[in-house]
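Dock phosphoric acid mono(formamide)ester; give full complex structure.
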Amino acid sequence: MNRQRHFLTLLDHTEEELQELLNMADQLKYEQKNGIAHPHLKGKTLGLIFGELSTRTRVSFEVGMYQLGGMALFLSARDLQMDRGEPMQDTARVLGGYLDGMMIRTQEQSAVEVLAEFAGVPVINGMTAFAHPCQVLADLMIIREYKRTFKGKKLCFIGPGSNVADSLIVGALKVGMEVAVACPDGFEPDERVLTWAETADGFSLTNDPLTAISGADAVYAGQWDAFFQKIPAETRKKVFPNYQVNGILLRNAKPDAIVLHSLPARRGEEITAEVFEEHAGEIFAQAENRLHGQKAVLLKLLGGQ
Ligand code: CP
């Protein structure tokens, strides 16, 4: 399988490819904001297979395809024959005959890999337990918008390891940021990502949020109750309180540090209501960038750009 033909995990893509996507996303955002139409995917179709709920991913892909001149089809996994046991290999080959591309949100990364292997059309990972590459494209966009450059900038992720943490570590290290992760013992990021990160410059992992946040330019509040983690409320309340992004912890970051969150946010858990509202500007701009970042991915994979 030619993995560059798909968007499955950021591990598959070089810094140059990520920078190209980010530049395309900035251009598409500029055009959208200035009323410059860009129907480069006229006549193209994208299937959106959702095995889980979504607000941002679903709407931004549907709107993104529309703005690019194409059409998106929402396909709830519960309404497909997959739910009655039709194998992914067969679903992939059938849908690949109708569609120009597919996005899938499902727990198993292996299911996304099978879809990509058999579909014959580009496949985009709309989030698995292992990776959330579309989210991180939007995250990198917003960091560059606020900080102008990645080089010499420090990103800190506070919270239990998750799909977002896994993709963020890979994406931010690839574009040249320093990445410090603070997570509770027993809730580290995926071992495959940690093994890879050890080969890159600028990565550190600790269970001390103060060490990780020190001098950070961007602080990422990791969800305590993310999809696919299902951490019981009792554990969250007992084990995670030191990993809350609050005003006291934030004093140790740079004074002009931005605060990021993939949403939905649980105020009073991973982030306080005060910090969330103080940084709502960048957090909702980050969410908006899901649209622009994914349009760049669609253009690259479906438009041959
Ligand atoms: N951040 C994110 O993926 O949001 P949704 O679950 O709403 O798509």
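Observed: Strands lie at 45-50, 71-76, 101-105, 123-125, 154-158, 178-182, 203-206, 218-221, 258-260.
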